[in-house]
Amino acid sequence: MKLYSTNNKDLRVSFQDAVFTSLPQDGGLYMPEVIPVLDPAFIRNIQQYSLQDIAFHVASALIGDDIPAADLKAIIAEAINFDAPVKFLDAEQAVLELFHGPSFAFKDFGARFMSRVMGYFSKQGDQLLDVLVATSGDTGGAVALGFLGVEGTRVTILYPKGKVSKVQEDQLTTNGKNIRALEVDGTFDDCQTLVKTAFNDETLNKELRLTSANSINIARLIPQTFYYFWAYAQLRSQGAQDVVFTVPSGNFGNIGAGLLAYKMGLPVKHFVAGTNINDTVPRFLQNGKYAPKPSTQTLANAMDVGNPSNWVRIQDLFGQDLDAIRAVVSSYTYTDEETKLGMEEMYARYNYVACPHTAIAYLAAKQYRKEHEGNYASVFLSTAHPCKFPDAITAEAFQAIELPAEAIALAQKERLVSKIDVDYDGFKSYLLMNK
Ligand SMILES: *Cc1c(COP(=O)(O)O)cnc(C)c1O
């Protein structure tokens, strides 16, 4: 597999280089040089395959011989070791639950696959790989639990004090082993600035082999295509033909993977992006002007993104043709008030407790259905378990949540956390003194 930069199509790097650098230096994003189209017979017979079979088929089409088949199979068996079930709420509407991994969010797919690919490419005798991550909640948990115990790697997670939920903090701080949690007396932006400063610090980079677990890493995008194929396989087994996917979107990595799957030959009728009031993409689809804004805080805080970094990938996939994108992607925006009503409606009507991100997808799927009648299965993606967002959920609905056994077990474990101020020199000396 070779990749180019969306800012320079003449550039070519290997899969391994794209994984370790995350971003080309020209500020673009890596894209596969060739988007392989899967054998139609594979799609026709897709209901015969397991999630892991599908993942292997799709990943090997993309990655080619950069990872030999037996090794890729082993990586997938370890990384994708949990299900992503499609559940019908009524005759037309289904939810694809992506929260059955260790951090109870869809980011487990990306983080677990990426961690094992990085471990695989880190040869014996290489210097320890130091992964630095700033998190507002969901990314950190997926990365921590994804890298936990992966040989040759160490993860340092920075999170803002008092701004992550209890389950999220348990996931960040109870791991030990190769995972370290730093509670920063500041905001998420402060955490991000500390991490960015470290990446640009030459003396630090001489001492440590630093890498980011950035959400735009190509090794996070690839495994997110798997569950679109797997959902389609499940729907076909249940007799559905046409499918519309609705994706709660912030940085547009999740829906970007869906659109990559579509370009690889997955027969999807349409994609719908649901956003909170951070509506840069919906405005762009409407008026053709890409005008990012600073992000605004909402209930669906994993989608508080003012300038979605994966959007350039989607434009690249469609050759910068806005009308071609509009033919496949619609989008709708919801306020916190509407999101709350959506969560209440799901609970009242279906006895389904959803996180706020999922509720936005539910609302967007409903809106699309209202505007486009027809005989198709409407599948919205549930990106996180509701137990991670207690403040967004009514007390009554929260009572009805069945806490995953793993969440209960984590709460019993001791938290191991170091506290730092928003002070780069302090952060740097922590890293150097704890080499
Ligand atoms: C990260 C996240 C999203 C947004 O996904 P993108 O790929 O950034 O669009 C949605 N919901 C939850 C729960 C998340 O953690």
TrEMBL record:
GO biological process: threonine biosynthetic process
Record flagged with keyword Signal: no
Pathways involved: Amino-acid biosynthesis; L-threonine biosynthesis; L-threonine from L-aspartate: step 5/5
Residue ranges of every copy of the Threonine synthase N-terminal domain listed in the record: 4-79
Class in the EC hierarchy, top level: lyase
Sites bearing N6-(pyridoxal phosphate)lysine, chain numbering: K107
Entry-linked PROSITE patterns: DEHYDRATASE_SER_THR (PS00165)
EC number(s) given by UniProt: 4.2.3.1
Pfam families on file: PALP (PF00291), Thr_synth_N (PF14821)
Reaction(s) catalysed (UniProt annotation): O-phospho-L-homoserine + H2O = L-threonine + phosphate
GO MF annotation terms: pyridoxal phosphate binding; threonine synthase activity
Keyword annotations of the record: Amino-acid biosynthesis, Lyase, Pyridoxal phosphate, Threonine biosynthesis
Cofactor(s) in the UniProt record: pyridoxal 5'-phosphate
Tryptophan synthase beta chain-like PALP domain residues: 96-381
Transmembrane segments: none
Family classification: Belongs to the threonine synthase family.
Protein name, entry field: Threonine synthase
UniProt organism field: Sphingobacterium deserti
